[in-house]
Fold this protein.
Amino acid sequence: MGSGYRGYSHTQGAIERFKPHDLMEELKNSGVKYTEKDVVLVAKNYNGKLLWLEKGNESSGLKHIEKRHQKDFGANTNVKDLLMKILPLKPLKHFSRKKGKKLADIYLYKKNSKLYLVAYGDNGYIVSFYPYGKG
């Protein structure tokens, strides 16, 4: 079973790995708006900021990432797995982008000689994630 195997994502072990109880409690107590049943991943970044990924829709979240960027990752890449490995790393670069009233933090990471972009709102909601350039 390579990293692209998706048959385990609903097992108790995968749920605990992608949604650790202590971080789900922290998210619950954070005061941010989220839909608990739609959360598929919760983690902290390199400086301890709480981040989470929801199932989402066409423009943000896991559905957006899989629909718009799965081809960029490759068919056998488990996006959630890769994201869990990247988020704790210190990013190479950070910049903010304001779109209307919303502020998005955009981070550029390097893992295994490849560059990845992660974008999330100031509340910690992960909007997008994809390989960036040639690495």
In short: The helical segments are 12-18, 21-29, 61-73, 79-86. The two ends are 26 Å apart (CA to CA). The longest strand covers residues 102-111.
